[in-house]
Amino acid sequence: MEISNLKNNLTISISYKPKEEEIKIIKKELESISSLFFLYELDNDKRIEVLKNTDILVTFFPEKELSKTELEILKNSKKLRLVQCILSGIDHIDFNIFPNVKILGNSGGYAVMIAEHVFGFILYFGKNIQKNHENLRNGIYKQNTDNILLKGKTIGILGYGGIGKEVAKLSKAFGMYVIGINTTAKTDDSNVDEIYTLQNLHYVLKKSDILVISLPLNKETENLINYEKLSLMKPNAILINVGRGKIINQKDLYYFLKENKDFKVALDVWWKEPAFNEPFELEYPFFELPNFLGSPHITALTKETYEIRTKNYINIIKGFIEAGCSLAW
User: Do 28 and 314 contact (CB within 8 A), yes or no?
Assistant: First the structure.
């Protein structure tokens, strides 16, 4: 069945509250191919009716946006085929709520913005921007600096998906050598010089002057980076995490940073944070360390983000529809 002829057969429900610019895009792209509903506009009875007939759910955080009754309806639904998350990661979604349903993240939807932020971190540390600023503010005009030249340095990228590829593209603009890790050790991307799986993690850690983590959080990656792994890295390396906080062991990271003053770390993701229904909280005083930098999970946030992410996840939905994917229309 042609995608343009699906409107009478396909129901798409939006459970998060999009911004105005997103709503315009959603309506333009999805109203012509589906019966489209924004759940927050509906009363309780209508929401129940719509959810019983929903084929595709677009969500940020289902357990925040839907009642227990509504979640139970979706859990037992024979119609629901796709849960499309507007975030890249889907580790915050309880898969038990959606058995036998495809759950997709917004892969690539934030990649360009995150990659730019990664290089903000890299340049902050690599060019000693804060330290030189502080010297001048204190009346110290000191040109004897230990800035690093990025050209010729090796950058390791753990998680060579959409974000990793954008980081690699910028890395090549700086003349860097790129080593990536993904699940297959294969890629058609020309910006990577070497590509491996996590089985070669030790090699990548030892080789990297800069390490960027953009992995998803799962059983294999939780606490992947501990004190032992950090000890394999170069003593003056820069480590950046834009994946998920729990990929790095918090205690090990703190004590390693405290003991290794030349090693630098920048985090945009945290072990506990409001985005995942928890208050921002640290068990160790990272911000007292001079070799540490943090931002509040904002690598993806620019004024252009909402338009970019919405168009991206709509393309994912359309690809899912066009592929058929067991939807009985």
Answer: no
Domain range summary for the chain, segments of one domain joined by +: 3-109+305-322, 111-294
User: The domain 3-109+305-322 belongs to what CATH superfamily?
Assistant: NAD(P)-binding Rossmann-like Domain (3.40.50.720)
Nearest alpha-carbon partner for 90 in 80, 104, 71: 104
Check if 3-109+305-322 and 111-294 are the same fold. yes
- Note the pTM of the prediction, 2 decimals: 0.87
Is the CATH number 3.40.50.1970 carried by domain 111-294?
Answer: no
Torsion angle of the four alpha carbons 30, 106, 167, 267, in this order, in degrees rounded to the nearest 10: 130
Please, is 256 exposed, middle or buried when counting C-beta atoms within 10 Å of its C-beta (0-12, 13-18, 19+)? buried
Return the closest-CA partner of residue 191 out of 204, 177, 201, 209: 177
pLDDT tens track for 282-320: 999 999 999 999 999 999 999 999 999 999 999 999 999
Handedness of CA 34, 53, 101, 269 (dihedral sign): positive
pLDDT for position 89 = 86
Q: How many Å apart are CA 177 and CA 200, to the nearest integer?
A: 17
Closest CA to 309 of 22, 93, 58: 22
CA 127 to chain centre: 26
CA angle 249, 90, 48 (to 5 degrees): 140
Q: How sure is the predictor about 81, in pLDDT bands with cuts at 50, 70 and 90?
A: very high
* 72, 52 Cβ separation under 8 angstroms: no
- In this structure, the strands spanning 210-213 and 238-241 are parallel
CA 41, CA 19: separation in Å to the nearest integer? 14
Amino acid at the residue 100: N
For the stretch 1-40, what's the b/e string if a residue is b when 16 or more beta carbons lie within 10 angstroms of its beta carbon?
Answer: eeeeebeeebbbbbbbebeeebeebbeebbeebbbbbbbe
